[in-house]
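As described in the Methods, two query proteins were run sequentially through the folding procedure within a single session, without resetting any intermediate state between them. The first query and its resulting structure tokens are shown here.
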Amino acid sequence: MEAEPRTLTAADGARIAYARSGAPGAARALLLVHGVASNMSRWSEFVGQTALSDSWILLRLDLRGQGRSIHRGRIGMAEWCADLAAILEAEGIGRAVVVGHCLGANIALQFAARCPASVAGLVLVEPMPPDALAGEMRRIANLRPLLIALAWLTRALNTLGIHRRRLAELDLEQLDRETRAALAAGPRGEALLARYASPFADLRSTPTGAYLQALTAVTAPWPELKRIAAPVLALLSARSSFTDPQRTRAALGALPDCETVELDARHWIPTEQPQAMRAAIETWVARKFARS
């Protein structure tokens, strides 16, 4: 089934873009959530190749403030979680397995804590515990008060009509393919891979206020994990430059039911190890939800 683009108008008037694909009459659903300065194309390759499309509904969205869900007001965990709940309600889905990457993984945890009845399971791809942040992300976390102030100032300017009128389109499926080909061919791939960690590149396709609020959110405290009863699969990068692997594992240890798989990647698993990521998710889902 081809992806069907849809739009949801939230209670506060924000318009959220999302897409539905997979098995039309399926009783089970995956809700795919992207990360900072990203959009639903983060999951295009997964949706196009996963065997789960034969028996599951696949939903993916542009988070409020990113992609086609342009929004220049307040953005944060409360708003994102409300948007996820609204999409599930609009699609008539009671419970879903929520799959999140980077910031999306942190949102998935918050959603499970706030709306436990809506979550059948979680897949956390490169989650970012605040106490495990490293490198550039640790420096960003140390600047959190400044980010909050800059986000407030940017929102104030936006209300006055001061904002960029044009943003670059970002096709992550194409960028991922180009990056893998370049990595296989030589050193140029390292430069392309570094693009995923560049704020200057991020801001080409993301409104400034939304970007600042997303960075603020990714450095925010996690919910109390011991209260999350849903089964969890965590996929971690073996060579992550954004989080400390040992501290990430320690944080995830508070989850009552969490299985951890380590994949060989440095920046982003979906870019560098898409097939291994897909296989791990499919295997775990088949085992955990065979009879659901």
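Immediately afterward, the second query was submitted; its sequence and tokens are:
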Amino acid sequence: MNLKAAKDAITSKFGRQILKGRKHAPVILFVAGTVGVVGATVLACRATLKMHDVLDEIQTDLEKARALEHPDYSDTDRQKDVALIYLKGSGRIFTMYAPAVGLGVLSILALTGSHVMLTKRNAAAVAAYAAIDKGFREYRQRVMAELGEDKDCEFRYGMIEREIVEETDEGPVVKTIKEIGPNGNSIYARFFDEHNRSWQKDPHYNQMFLQCQQNYANDLLKARGHVLLNDVYDMLGLDRTKEGCVVGWVKDDGDGYIDFGVFNGDRASGMRFVMGNERSIILDFNVDGLIYDKI
């Protein structure tokens, strides 16, 4: 390895460590600030324990100065001595509490720095998500304008063709239908099946439960003006997710309603579920996206 290659390797490694340090800087500052606050409290308590002795010494010096009688010791000298005793006493008290105060100030600065960093990163993440979401919606609009809504649905959900057999008066008839492929659901989709505490073996009960929860979610959207995806997950007995804390629906923005992807007739699996032929279903929610930039 020549000198330039070694230099580049060292520089690259050093730069990567700096990047990792910046990545974890908010956590490091928060931990340092929290530890600093605890340390400042301990130092302040230790200084307070010594305060009684210092106050006693100040009081003793004051009593001596006020009781001192001498022909050459005037009231002006007494006042100067009293002021000097107060000044020195204040200096001692400041010196005792200075470490606690200094550490407390540094801890507050560290906590503030952590908060500012996280706020900026959250703002950047929101802006990036909003830009991606806007670009995706504009892309879909161009697809629908050029090819129609059916093609948009096919591209978005990865529609596949499947043959089914239907019984008719003339006998069994093979029909070809399109339905969402195995990889066509969004990242927010969840199974509603026997692993859910609200699921029952009766398909009509499950259908009624989901319909009622969807109606309630829409009523909540109208009343409150916004609904988080995690709110809907809670209604359905599903586990919360990280993305569910920030995405959801906002009234008068996006679709303007909450849909579980079951009763709109777009999915063959949803139709089979509604007809009572299946007891479980994949729920896919029409979230409007990140809601904090829409409020």
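Residues 159-184 form one domain. We note this only descriptively and draw no conclusion about the first query from it.
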